[in-house]
Design a protein that fits this description.
Shape: globular
Order of helices and strands: EHEHEHEHEHEHHHE
Helix content: 40-55%
Largest sheet: 7 strands, parallel
Mean pLDDT: 90
Low-confidence stretches: 1-7
Oligomer: single chain
CATH architecture: 3-Layer(aba) Sandwich
Strand order of the largest sheet: 3-2-1-4-5-6-7
CATH class: Alpha Beta
CATH superfamily: NAD(P)-binding Rossmann-like Domain
Structural class: alpha/beta
Number of domains: 1
């Protein structure tokens, strides 16, 4: 799909924009008047259609595989050739591992999680940061997890990848601050998405209990009693890229319903 010349104004690139949280982030951006570039491995047309009357604010759809540096580099070249400068870069893309102990987890599953969740954001930043507008309140927001702060049984690869992503965010924030580019992380708790429900089913099977029992156990840990709506995560992203967060960088914002207090 070729780049459209409209709308003008600020541009947001949402990597992983076709997933449940990514779509919510795109919706918040277009409602705020941004043009959006949606990048994902699949589901791009459906993501655009989900924006309804705001679909005209989609500037481009880019198929990208975060596991392949050539694919990420091609995304950077496409943006460069279009002349598009990015005001907000949001990295939402992430995968969950099969629920398994360290002794049973396949090395290939560990590598896949690390490739997408940790190496992928590094590659995106390496190839896309030159397209951000310097000295103009440009912003990078990476969607991590509350599991970046503690390990959980059966999800060692996922927790380790998110912990690495949190420290990567801090390192990048220190490097980019002189350019006026802020870098922050949103750390969601459980979100009402297929990934969350699949993880509950997988852990229930690993523990030998029913899905309903596992869901009740997991949700009972949340003081607010429910997982987040994806739009509630998008609201935090929208705050971090906006003027109200102009002096915030290197931070992680908890959006978890109170399941973790820090």
């Amino acid at each position: 799909m070729s780049l459209s010349s409209e709308p003008e104004g600020k541009v947001a690139l949402v990597v992983g924009g076709a997933g449940a949280v990514g779509r919510a982030v795109c919706r918040r951006f277009v409602e705020e008047g941004y043009a959006v570039v949606i990048a994902d491995a699949r589901g791009l047309d459906a993501a655009k259609s989900s924006l309804g009357r705001h679909a005209s604010r989609v500037k481009d759809l880019i198929e990208v595989d975060l596991r392949e540096e050539n694919s990420v580099a091609a995304m950077g070249r496409r943006l460069e050739q279009s002349g598009s400068l990015i005001d907000a870069l949001v990295i939402v893309a992430g995968v969950q591992q099969p629920a398994a102990t360290v002794l049973k987890l396949e090395t290939s599953d560990w590598d896949h999680v690390m490739d997408v969740n940790l190496r992928g954001p590094f590659l995106v930043c390496k190839h896309i940061l030159p397209r951000l507008t310097p000295h103009s309140s440009s912003s990078v927001v990476i969607v991590g997890s509350f599991w970046a702060y503690e390990g959980h049984a059966f999800f060692s690869a996922y927790c380790a990848s998110k912990a690495g992503l949190r420290v990567f965010t801090q390192s990048l924030a220190a490097e980019m601050a002189p350019s006026g580019i802020r870098v922050n992380m949103v750390a969601p708790g459980n979100i009402d998405t297929p990934m969350h429900h699949n993880a509950i089913e997988a852990e229930a099977a690993e523990r030998g209990i029913s899905v309903d029992e596992m869901r009740s156990l997991e949700w009972a840990k949340i003081p607010m009693g429910k997982p987040a709506d994806p739009l509630e995560i998008a609201d935090a992203v929208n705050f971090l890229v906006g003027a109200s967060a102009s002096y915030i960088t290197g931070s992680s914002i908890d959006v978890n319903g109170g399941v973790v207090f820090r």
